Amino acid sequence: AFAGPGPVENRARPITPENPIPRRTYYVSPQYPVEAAHVEARAVVTVRVTLDESGGLAESRVTGMNLTASNFTFTIQFSSGVTPGPESAGTSDAPIHKMERLLKSVVDAAHQADARRAMHAMGVEAVRAVSQWQYDRPADGPISFDVVVQMAPESDGPERNRITRQDGLPGGDAPQWGDALRVGGNIKPPMKTRHVAPVYPQDAQDAGVTGVVIIEARIEPDGTVGGTRVLRSVPMLDEAAVDAVQQWTFTQTLLNGQPVALIMTVTVNFTLQ
Questions:
Q1: What are the E-state strand segments in the chain?
Q2: pLDDT of 9-34, one tens digit each?
Q3: In 3D, which of 55, 14, 257, 76 has the Cα closest to residue 138?
Q4: If exposure means fewest CB atoms within 10 Å of the residue's CB, which of 125, 126, 220, 230 is most exposed?
Q5: Could you read off the pLDDT of 106-130 as tens digits, one per residue?
Q6: CB atoms near residue 260 (< 10 Å)
Q7: 179 with 170: CB under 8 angstroms?
Q8: pTM, whole model, 2 decimals?
Q9: Helices (H) and strands (E) in the chain — how many of each?
């Protein structure tokens, strides 16, 4: 889970409008680990996903983690550089050793063992869940991209374990949108440059479920969707709606000549033919 880039990631093709992130077709939810429950840990885990030429998930690894527990908090980001060879696996350059050094520097000695167990368990669980996802074939594979997995105890509510950013799932409290500007007034909505239609879930079709899912989305400075939150839910349709929206792209919005992030509301309509 905490390894460096693998051989497939190292030859991944760049993400471009002609080679976008493929649509996810199958999802497995992360489970909250027992080791994390011991210290009421909450984690936001960034996982690098690498798909091969056929769309199969070839590699996945933790590239960052923000961990908060009852007695400690820390954030770590791993480099996305070249794959460390066998000679570096036991050195201070390996991600697992960088993680260990940071843990020792920010968590007091009495809680380091608990932090280590929670951190490892939540990283492994994030990779376990993501490794079971399925995607369409990329236009030009292999291709690598990041997803962000959130895990929290049951007291945080039914949507506590979810995916944000590229593979966002609905629900939960409002994300921290940072310095993004909200569309309205002088801030005009950007034009959509890539549209992906939602996949209508078969169980929803069989049940005759229709409706409009309303989603708040963060549009990154480069025009990609960087986060989502469902404002009006249709429970059997939310995930399909978010899966589609996370693959849309938009024109850049410039402020004083510089691209900026936006917050805007979008809708996804499901109707039976």
A1: 24-26, 42-51, 57-68, 73-77, 134-135, 143-151, 162-164, 181-182, 192-194, 211-219, 225-232, 249-250, 253-255, 258-260, 262-270
A2: 999 998 776 777 787 777 777 888 99
A3: 55
A4: 220
A5: 666 767 788 788 888 998 999 999 9
A6: 16
A7: no
A8: 0.55
A9: 6, 15
Examine domains 7-163 and 181-270 and report if their fold is the same: yes
**Maximum C-alpha span of the chain:** 62
Give CA separation, 142 vs 19, 20, 166, in Å: 10, 12, 17
CATH code at 7-163: 3.30.2420.10
Rg (CA), the chain: 19
* Separation between Cα atoms, residue 82 and residue 62, nearest integer Å: 15
Neighbours of 17 (CB within 10 A): 9
Tokens coding 173: 């409290």
CATH superfamily of 181-270: TonB (3.30.2420.10)
